[in-house]
Amino acid sequence: QNTIDKIAAGEVIERPASVVKELVENAIDAGATAITVDIKEGGTSFIRITDNGGGIYKDDVKLAFLRHSTSKIKSVEDLAGVSSLGFRGEALSSIAAVAQVELITKTAAGLTGIRYVIEGGFEKSMEEIGAPEGTTFIIRNLFYNTPVRRKFLKSPVTEAGYISDLMERLALSHPDISFKFINNGQIKLHTSGNTKLKDIIYNVYGREIASHLIPIDADMGVIKLEGYIGKPVVSRGNRNYENYYINGRYIKSGVVSKAIEDAYKSYMMQHKYPFTALHIKIDGEFLDVNVHPTKMELRFSNQEDVYKSICSAVSEGLARREL
Ligand code: ADP
Ligand code: MG
Predict the structure, then answer these.
(1) In this prediction, does ipTM exceed 0.90?
(2) Residue 134 beta carbon below 6 angstroms from any ligand 1 atom
């Protein structure tokens, strides 16, 4: 069991940023409106994630760390319409297999909070303690028991950079949630949680980009688009500034990128990659999210339709632009 968990963990947890991604997505799924991520040494020695979401019931705490245990899917039919970010029940078991994990959680109904410690997949303790409503995870010494994996990590500065990029994408993906990111005691990002997408773009990318945005707002029936595309002056030579979220999830998709770029090319006469911050809503039936555990790649059940809808939605927005 423990060995299997360690191997399985390799698929989901590659580096500190993967831990942060999984735990923040869990916090979002738990309905949190404020999430704080605090790291030291690039997250290799210390990651603390605090949320004000629903918490975990006492009886569910141990269960949450079992492989394939998820509270988010009740049946196979549910899979097609998954709207929560997580659903495989692999993250907590994977993280606990390769790190020292401390969990403090309290539900609204719980009389006290619970503190649970699990290291390398082995339970250390579980006790009742006072705690505010919500959940805190502390992850210490990632890969402490898998030295080979630990050796493959980059420098703390580089690992912190990955987490910083991730926090920016998460902030852009949920303007309604307040995100705080603290690196070695310094606040690196703080969003208020009731701002507009544009304010977060300003916060993350600065004035230059925020003042050169074209709003996109299109409803194509099964596909809806909302957000911004940068004017040509702030275009890039690569796809690094292409951010888009499908049903709230940050993903990479050749089809989506191509659709945006093609629309941009024909309207802007420009062969560069546009700055993009787009929220795309697609009916669950068009999605196959069950492709890879980290869910960064998405497959569509009808690529052609998705391409056409996004391309014409973006085109429509660009056609109405004022340059
Ligand atoms: P998944 O997200 O795929 O369900 P995880 O291993 O990430 O699987 O989490 C297991 C379960 O633990 C979740 O289904 C959820 O019930 C619970 N859980 C994890 N993190 C939180 C959190 N921050 N707040 C409330 N519940 C949580
Ligand atoms: Mg999860």
Answers:
(1) yes
(2) no
